Amino acid sequence: MGTQNAVLLNCLRAIVGDAHVITDAITMQSYTIDWTGRWQGEAVAVVRPGTTDEVSAVVAACHERRIPITAQGGNTGLVGGAIPSAGSIVLSTQRLNSIDTIDPVGRIIAAGAGVTVAMADDAASKHGLQFGIDLASRDSATLGGIVATNAGGVRMVRHGNTRAQLLGVEAVLSDGAVLSRWIPLVKDNVGYDLPGLLAGSEGTLAIITKVLMKLTTPPPETQVVLAGVSTIEAALNLCDRMRRHGLTVEAAEIMTTDGVALVCSHSDARHPFGQPSPLYTLIEISSSGDTEATVLEILSASADTMDDAIVEPGPARKLWQIRESHTECISRASSTPVVKLDVAVPLPEMSTFITALESALAAEFSEVTPILFGHFADGNIHVNILNVPTAASNAITDRVFEIVAAHHGSISAEHGIGRAKKSWITLGRSPVDIRIMKQIKSALDPRCLLNPDVLLPTASAESTQT
Ligand code: 2HG
Ligand code: ZN
């Protein structure tokens, strides 16, 4: 270890305590490698501050020495956005894990960045409320992480994305200064929306230490429908009919026959129907009336467009398990790290998009196995490609994104850009857009020390500037 690093580590230890500066290679692996194994980084150390003041002091020390920092919450991201580059430190928010307050009247939670989504939801439920974001990684994903990535999740169709829930942030800027935009109001229109800017900034603009977020009212009861259908149109029509009958769609997911078969063979989930269907849609609905009766009426009127259907009162965990086990089972089933392309297309184009994608992959990359699933009512399809030879991964990504662009879609619906997609950012943003993003980056992080290898393709080019 160089003298410079030794001096840095001593300084960090003096700030956070010896126990919270991790340098041993084995322990560091859970911070430097993502859980899919696709993104493997390196770091000088993992630092775990316990307060905002400690975060500020750590960041100031790194700023002075021009040491890059990668902030990390639960390390559940899927685009390598929380994985450090050699020479950086990982700043883990795990210890910023206290819930400060819940205001049950204003329906607001104030919590540390390291609080998990499950902890926030659990705390909200004690007041008869709900946290507005939910995702399969709820037990590990942190509030700081979901804000930094502007996560979507399964309730996005109902409550919007994380940015829509965010009222305020406390964040440490690249020189250690603390920004506190902390106003527990849903109406506060004074100038630029800095919390909104930090949402989705992937650790490149500031390090989020606390969040102030809305809570929602949970529906009194829900019904969960799992229907086997032959076409995307049938799934979209079913969702549309539910809305037209006054039902509230709480979640609307799509799975394919191959995805469901894979989950059933790599977990204890059971196939839902006697006969497989080409597609499965899982829709959770609520209403102020008799939800079950209305759902049954809609299903019987839609019988000619469905192969089969089951209805269960929420939470219907066994039905949800089939959908939520996709990510883990896919990882287990693939012989190589899964290529994960989280895309969105306009609803009227979804069917032709899927057909074009499946036929291009079958014709041009016959050795790979694509599994598609996602939050279809948001236009969001998770294109997971298994068994991709490493050398083919860029070519496959190029091809998928070409088809996405031809269908007027987005190359990142909810997972962000991270390392995985930064080479393709020009497919999602114009040159003027990118210029503005770079200007914002250099205004907030002129030394380019915050997650320099993430999001913007040439972010590190500014590292020579002061
Ligand atoms: C989900 O919707 C997550 O379950 C993960 O966004 C998706 O594994 C994926 O591609
Ligand atoms: Zn998702």
Description:
The protein is α+β, with helices and mostly antiparallel strands. The protein has five domains: 3-92, Uridine Diphospho-n-acetylenolpyruvylglucosamine Reductase, domain 2, CATH 3.30.43; 99-216, 2-Layer Sandwich (Uridine Diphospho-n-acetylenolpyruvylglucosamine Reductase, domain 3); 222-324, 2-Layer Sandwich (Alpha-Beta Plaits); 334-416, Alpha-Beta Plaits, CATH 3.30.70; 429-462. The chain is built from 16 helices and 17 strands. It has helices at 3-16, 25-32, 52-65, 117-125, 143-149, 156-159, 162-165, 194-198, 232-244, 257-266, 291-301, 317-324, 326-333, 350-364, 393-406, 431-444, and strands at residues 21-22, 45-47, 69-72, 89-92, 99-103, 108-112, 130-131, 166-172, 178-181, 207-216, 222-229, 248-256, 279-286, 306-313, 339-344, 369-374, 380-386. A hairpin with a 4-residue loop joins strand 5 and strand 6 (108-112). Helix 10 packs across helix 13. The longest helix has 15 residues, at 350-364. It starts with a helix and ends in a 22-residue tail after the last helix. Bound molecules: (2R)-2-hydroxypentanedioic acid and zinc ion. Residues 152, 374-375, 382, 414 line the site of zinc ion (ZN).
Terminal Cα span: 26 Å
Tell me the number of structural domains.
5
What name does the CATH topology of the largest domain carry?
Answer: Uridine Diphospho-n-acetylenolpyruvylglucosamine Reductase, domain 3
Q: What fraction of the residues are assigned to beta strands by DSSP?
A: 15-25%
Write the CATH architecture name of the largest domain: 2-Layer Sandwich
Point out poorly predicted stretches.
460-466
The tally of strands reads 17
Rg estimate, integer Å: 23 Å
- Strand numbers in spatial order across the main sheet: 14-11-13-12-16-17-15
Protein name: FAD-linked oxidase
Family: Belongs to the FAD-binding oxidoreductase/transferase type 4 family.
Domain FAD-binding PCMH-type: 39-218
Organism: Rhodococcus opacus M213
